[in-house]
Specification:
Two copies of one chain form a homodimer. Chain A has ten helices and no strands. By secondary structure, chain A is an all-alpha fold. Chain A has a single domain, classed as Tetracycline Repressor, domain 2. In chain A, α2 crosses α5.
């Protein structure tokens, strides 16, 4: 049932963050750089666990400068989420769309998510998944925004699967919507399994099993 | 690729909790009942978000009684995790083992996890998954215990898949270890998708897709 998995070049977060987060560089500091620093704190400690002191230290700015540039902790978090989508999530779609076929694209996208999870530069897991599960600690607007990010992921996958059905690359009997949900579920689940110390190699086998649903 | 999903009787948390958590009833209060109350608070608010005041209120006991009976917040949480494993996780294995065949068993187990997630009596999601993702907020012993719970789930699944291979119920070519990891990944991922407002019906289709890997 499992084909041996191919080794990809791998996504390195450090590279992804250089190209994502399209922020101004016109102020006294590099907005992109300080937002990335804030992102890593929220990613590691969660929204609730992150204090303004943590943000001051990570961003290298005092409270007044942070407030003037970004607003309160909630506002910084919302900017960080935009930055995350524009860098990390966008890198995964680049993997998907750069592949020679849809099956290889889905494999690369899921393996890319593993690359980021196991990247020594990241706190592990996915910021959206981690934040979504901090239920009760986010206002309704942030909660809806995170839910929408996962729904967008599913819809973007569904669009590509439907297109591949039309072009004859995938079977006409494939349920594009359900398969997209399954792929997104796998991506989210692997983030949890990584936190439970499952190895990257064992999760790559799960990627191959899920990709085999496209056969 | 998708067969229409069958409707199960469904697991109701209220029933599960009546049979799980094997605690003494010899004291001035019902240990099982107060631990279940504490469980629901941790489940809803997370470890970090739960205060001693929340526990006092939910358990209907004052701080001194709680401390004398269970110890500090950490100790209560550890007892709650044991209770969760003995009730919720154990109910899922009852679903698995009570089915007429392995394929139906895995389907019932995954659907049972959805039943609990979407049960109106629960805060949603899985306590182990939610707690595991609160990284940095647990001591090493608790962290290892939660990781072990997911590893035990995987191993228990693997044992049943291997047995079904031996009896000829499953193909000899099936990789029992990887398939067990994929099933556990799906279970964890569905908890996240539920938090992202995906419907139970759409996730049941994902269950069917993953079960089809056993064909």
């Amino acid at each position: 049932m499992l084909s041996s998995y191919i080794v990809l070049n791998g996504i390195k977060l450090r590279q992804v963050l250089k190209t994502g987060c399209f922020m101004a560089r016109t102020k006294q500091f590099d907005e992109r750089q300080v937002l990335v620093s804030a992102m890593l704190v929220f990613w590691e400690k969660g929204y609730e666990g992150t204090s303004i002191q943590d943000l001051e230290q990570a961003m290298g700015l005092n409270r007044t400068s942070i407030y003037n540039a970004f607003g309160n902790k909630r506002a910084i978090f919302n900017r960080v989420m935009v930055c995350y989508k524009e860098s990390v999530m966008s890198a995964l779609f680049t993997e998907l769309d750069g592949a020679p076929n849809i099956k290889e694209g889905v494999r690369r996208m899921l393996n890319g998510a593993l690359d980021i999870h196991f990247d020594e530069d990241t706190p592990g897991g996915c910021l959206v998944v981690l934040s979504l599960l901090e239920s009760g600690q986010h206002d309704e607007q942030s909660q809806v925004s995170m839910q929408q990010t996962i729904k967008n992921l599913k819809h973007a996958l569904q669009t590509r699967l439907s297109k591949a059905k039309k072009s004859g690359e995938l079977s006409k009997n494939l349920d594009a919507g359900s398969t997209a949900t399954t792929i997104a579920t796998t991506m989210a689940g692997m983030m949890v399994m990584g936190k439970a110390n499952f190895t990257k190699a064992s999760l790559k086998k799960t990627v191959n099993q899920v990709v085999s649903l496209l056969d």
